[in-house]
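User: For my dataset I need records formatted as: sequence, then structure tokens, nothing else. Please produce one.
Assistant:
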Amino acid sequence: MKKRRRSRLTLRARAGMAVLTVIIILIIAAFMKIDSAVQPVAAIQAEQYSKITANEIISSAVAEYLSENQYTYNDFAAVLYDEEGSAVSIESVTYNINKVQSELTLLINSEFEKNGDSSAEIPLGSLTSSHMLAGKGPHINLRICPARDATVKLTSNFESAGINQTCHRISVNVTADINSSIPLYTFETKTSFEFLLAENVIVGDVPDNSFKLT
């Protein structure tokens, strides 16, 4: 009798383990399916909110800086003409270029540090690929913070502005890496923004060796 009872208990235990194994496998399979559906959408949402947050912080810092420093084209470039009035070269004002890059870098990174705990709330349904669930469900917190220091570089480009005219633009290019995270996921987004600093229309041909930013 004891052997039969032990045999029955063993069979039940084996059956229970088999059922538990199947349940675990089903749970893992369901989680993997949910993960494969949620992660790409979550990455897109995180990238979108990260760029919006970075744009607000960077735009505000640049606007504040340019408002306090009323720069003109002549602060960054000097157009040299010959006796006939033709442009022979465009020299960069290195001191001011380096000054702006340095000061803006410090200001933007300072603003990022102040806003290091930025966050946004996303409806759980928006993290799925379902249009019916978009914008619905409980909200989860998306935390946004800078991953590394932002970098600032002044860029220059020449474009045709009509017959025998060239528009020379000097712009501020800001690049930042932003970390964002929700429960179970962490994402990194690289963002770049460009702001016009100064421009000038030059009459005549622009020399090939004109204006080099350091």
